[in-house]
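DATA SHEET
Item: assembly model
Revision: 1
Owner: S.N.
Input lines:
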Amino acid sequence: MLELDGIDAGYGPVQVLRGLSLTARPGEITCLLGRNGAGKTTTMKAIMGLLPLTAGRITLEGEDISRLPAHEVPKRGIGYIPQGRRLFSELTVAQNLEIGMRVRPSPPQVLTRVLELFPRLADRMGQRAETLSGGEQQMLATARALCLEPRVLLLDEPTEGLQPSMIEAIRQVVVRMKSEGVAILLVEQRLDAVMSSADRVVFIENGQVRDNADAADLRARPEMLKRYLGV
Amino acid sequence: MDFGPHLLLAAIEGAVTAAVLALMAAGLSLVFGVMRVVNVAHGEFYMLGAVLAWVVASTLGAHPALGFVAALAIAPLIVGAVAAAADMTVLKRLDYDPERTIVATIGLLYILQQLTLMGYGPEARPVAPPFNQRLALPWVEWGDGGVQLYWPWGLSVTTYKLFVIGAAGAVLAGLWALMTRTRIGLVMRATQLDGEMALAFGIPVERVYAGVFGLGAALAALAGVLIVPIQQAHYLMGGDALLLSFIVVIIGGLGSLAGTVIAAILIGMSDGIISVFFSPTLAKIIATLLVAFVLVFRPQGLMGKPPR
């Protein structure tokens, strides 16, 4: 279980998160919703240790990971699929996956399993990441994170700019990870995707958690969406 | 001497300059490519390599070959360690901010230069080459019976100069293999492409930076050790070398090893040839003019990629 407890974080003098607390449980998809600039991506970066916390703490299975050097955080089993994919563009597909495999490091059969999930990548192992299509790049970003056998998976707008068949492929993988007991934290703008797959929804506004809801409740009370998102 | 043999002699001098320059510029380009740090102190690492070569060779005092081989191993190691320490104590604390690291490395330049002046003195000191046979070179001429080879007086090369060219080629090939074929190279390239994502995938970026800065300095030091039997070690020798390295890296394209080597050959050869036939000053003027043209017409350099 990943727990954020009253964290403050930001970029230099600009504070973005103000006492933000949330929990991501194994085998559940927790979705962060909020307007642009609310602090969703900042939350993801803070979990990865990429931004220093000025208050609060982040624990994974009880271990305080917010005091670790940033490169130690993924070794605890946190896979990050950042917004905009952020692949190592000039490296090949195989090299991008190798970097994921080296994190903990993972046994070789993990790569075989990841490539079974994304057979299109297996055909393009020698190709440079920047030459892939948008959907394939998103697959690679996902596969790279899965290579470290994550206990927690952070997905930041994984379906942004993708065609429906790709969105479905990514969604199936996320649901499969959930069924294998991975705790999933998802930032997503497309409400239909949230509604169909999320277990819990966390509304973020001005760097704070404003509300928590089970996705099932939210389907019954859509007025919450109007209040926090204006939709 | 006829024009042909004279040109060959100048080209050999140029090739030695090109070899040493390629090594040094590769270090500068590596540091900028991975860390985005413009290392103004790079010339001083070259100077330190040459000075340490003299220190090691004169301390051992044994056969010149033994002293030289020891210097070849020890000097780059010491200089690399000094640079890695400078990275961890100074550059890291500046968060690798592009402008502030320039100022910091200018400071490092003067510290290293003045410490050398205080400890080593203002003299230029030679190191004996490990071997230095003179090889006469042939040239062709049209004689009575067609093409004939002859050995013009004064057309020769020393084995040590050939060794410098060969050694530089071998080290650059090794560097290329390190970057493209090994785990260390993969980690360095990933850090270069996206440092934040490298961190998010367990790469200790700070350690990579210290290693890259040390490796870049060690390459400059190696160039200094190789040149010292030809040029002598002097505490101000880093200035010209730094200028030529920047010229090479700008023409070749920052961060491109192939471009650096091509530009080093271009600049080294033209420097050698123009210096012999005209004057060293004209060679520098032409090299600087070339940089101006590259900056106007192909700002990313010969082999560099335009910014995305």
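QC remark: The beta strands of chain A are 2-11, 14-24, 29-33, 53-60, 63-64, 78-81, 152-156, 183-187, 200-205, 208-214.
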